[in-house]
Design a protein that fits this description.
elongated; single chain; mainly alpha; 104 residues
Length: 104
Amino acid sequence: MIGRACREAERQYLEAKDWKGVVQMYRANEMWEDAIRVAKNHGGANASKQVAYAWAVSLGGEAGAALLKKFGLLEQAIDYAMESGAFAHAFELTRIGQKAGTHG
């Protein structure tokens, strides 16, 4: 039910040209794939990197890196961390991503 309500809200936000509001709504409801989709379609590559990075941070550690890797977003999140000056987090994502790659 939340998904249907969010889709309707997405339509209304986008009609008002407020794609950032849509992304925030999806983030608040932990609907990260939808948040990334909207960010990419309406805000471009850098916006989708920001959302991917926020997703990784929300999950933390190995869970965040593993999920991002699964969806092919790990590199985007690492790029955004580097661009944002969060070098320690970029290193951590890289380390965990490499570790996950050797086991699966």
